[in-house]
């Protein structure tokens, strides 16, 4: 059996297991997939531990110890997916066609998980060449609240450096944006629409908030990152009112603020608050509130001269890939490892992020074999430190 056949068979099994995040429609959770990963690795003779993150949801940590090694290289990939959506149940029926494997999670990010599992299987027989221990974390809840990687970080499990699996088209990612999400409320006073002057229109007040927030981008000047460009701010949801014949007393928007390395979340929130204070001064009749964010994720910024990046670029060159490190606008578990534990991390994996979450999600079969070679190559070259 070739390496490609081996990983394709494994990936078929992973895709066929419903691991939709419970936060989304049809979410079965990661329990069945965690069981599969545990049994697969125990069969290989690897050490496996489980970490309960929440009831019924467990991280799975696989370790390959190396005699005399003090440092640990961590491979990490999340087990959860977004909802099946337009794929329906066909998303759980992996299909190989035209050199691609189709199915929910094929690239985001079961392709990474499958290739990491095969890589660690191969490395079992090459421990004499390794200078570091190898660990693999199959984590829960990346697609919603990052509770899986947070629980791992809080556990103080050993890790000196990390490769986080996401669909990067086999590019080495050393920087990505952070994300802050939350709500902003305006509150007014309800009245009959026949006498609107008796009320205070919260939607009208929110219009002033939106107009002021539109100018927020200009306040990001000077924060441009060489790999990521500018910070961004967008409004993704709006809701208000209870009926067309009632002056609305409330309105809510949900914002998405993408930060770049060097921007602290508190600084980004302070920019928003400055704008809201201006609205409050101009519209004292409207109450404007910004509760704590529902999500705060830091940016990733791994030094290009780190030992991990050197090992990654060397491995990439041997495999025949582009070895120039790059940045991406989306977020991953890598930033939590770096920001909260000081663990240098890169992001790398088969497939394209443009296909993640879509109705035609797939991963190229050629990407799978090359990803395995890359992961093994980094492990064999990483010296620790």
What would your notes on this structure say?
The chain is of the alpha+beta class and 385 residues long. The protein folds into two domains: 3-176 and 299-381, Zn peptidases (Aminopeptidase); 178-296, Alpha-Beta Plaits (2-Layer Sandwich), CATH 3.30.70. It is 31% helix and 24% strand. The protein has helices at 3-16, 31-43, 110-123, 147-154, 202-214, 265-282, 307-319, 334-341, 365-381, and strands spanning 47-54, 57-64, 72-78, 95-97, 100-102, 133-139, 161-164, 173-176, 178-187, 191-192, 232-240, 246-247, 250-259, 287-289, 295-297, 300-301, 326-328, 345-347, 362-364. The strands form five sheets. The chain has a six-stranded mixed sheet with strand order 1-2-6-3-7-18, with helices on both faces. Strand 1 (47-54) and strand 2 (57-64) form a beta hairpin. Helix 1 packs across helix 9 (365-381) and helix 5 (202-214) crosses helix 6 (265-282). The longest helix is centred in the C-terminal third of the chain and has 18 residues, at 265-282. The mean pLDDT is 95.
Put the structure in a nutshell.
By secondary structure, this protein is an alpha+beta fold. It has nine helices and 19 strands.
